[in-house]
Amino acid sequence: MSLRLSVLASGSSGNATYMETDEGGLLVDAGLSCRRIAVLLARIGRRLEDVDAVLLTHGHSDHTSGVRSLVRERGMPIYSAPDVGGRLGTITVEAGETLRIGGLMAEFFEVPHDSRTYGVCVSDDERTAIIATDLGEISVDVLRRMRGAEAVVLEANHELEWLRRGPYPTDLKRRVASGNGHLSNRQTAQAACDLAPHGLKDLVLAHLSKTNNSPARATGTVTSALREAGHGRIRVRAALASHPTPWVDVGELLESPEYAYRYGKGEVQKLFETE
Ligand SMILES: [Zn+2]
Ligand SMILES: [Zn+2]
């Protein structure tokens, strides 16, 4: 049995990640319409019928706006933190509780954000993948939780200098950069270096700001930091707002010393580099 994932869409315009084993699949977040999620799933060869359940990280609309249409269309169970559940009619799950869905075990853990927010740990007994996309800082507890995962989907929201000089109002800049806001490329690079010696093979950078970041900047910052720290053997990809990432086969060994995915000119370009 193998654990696979693809980040279907990521960012403030909508988030959804599909994860599966041979026995079934789930979505983490549904911040796009049911129809849009179906289109994105089709691009990785899957259908809404392959989704057995949806796990919500928190109640912000870029993670939940498709829930009602999904329930109407497919009627699958939706799991979330207690304060999100009431509003959307979802099944409440406490942090630390284990869910079993289609051969997968999923567990939520709390991360610092400006509403109650969960990271998600998904495993198939052998392999583990973690998703943490809205968090203002990586606390010691969160880092400990992520260690040992072979694949991590981690927010790299903004380049701090771009945020500071950018067009956002001062209040919003402060909120985004705060400990309850979103992670900068630098914070994510630091976390990547901390996780690298603990079995990390794939890192997907997520929730990139369209205004204050770019896929090239985010992957460049993180791969440089990893390389400088002597961890060049980790695949680093950036998740896009409107196109699924290539499949991540969780725990798959690297066949080359290093490669990174970069994006430019509106189309996905895969660059293969060997040191
Ligand atoms: Zn978000
Ligand atoms: Zn959020």
Q: Main attributes?
A:
single chain, 275 residues, Metallo-beta-lactamase, Chain A, 7-stranded mixed β-sheet, 28% strand, binds zinc ion
Descriptive account of the structure:
It is built from 9 helices and 16 strands. It has a single domain, classed as 4-Layer Sandwich (Metallo-beta-lactamase, Chain A). The chain starts with a strand and ends with a strand. It is 27% helix and 28% strand. It is α/β, with parallel strands linked by helices and 275 residues long. The C terminus is likely disordered. A hairpin with a 6-residue loop joins strand 1 and strand 2. Strands 6-5-4-3-2-1-14 form a 7-stranded mixed sheet, covered by helices on one side. The site of one zinc ion (ZN) has 4 residues, from loops. One zinc ion (ZN) binds next to loops.
Largest sheet: 7 strands, mixed
- Unreliable stretches (pLDDT < 50, length at least 5) are 256-275
| CATH topology (fold) name | Metallo-beta-lactamase, Chain A
Instruction: Report helical residue fraction.
Output: 25-40%
CATH superfamily: Ribonuclease Z/Hydroxyacylglutathione hydrolase-like
Task: Compute the average pLDDT.
Answer: 91
- Structural class comes to alpha/beta
Tell me the β content: 25-35%
Bound molecules: zinc ion
Radius of gyration: 17 Å
Level-1 CATH class name: Alpha Beta
Q: Write out the strand line-up for the largest beta sheet, numbering strands in chain order.
A: 6-5-4-3-2-1-14
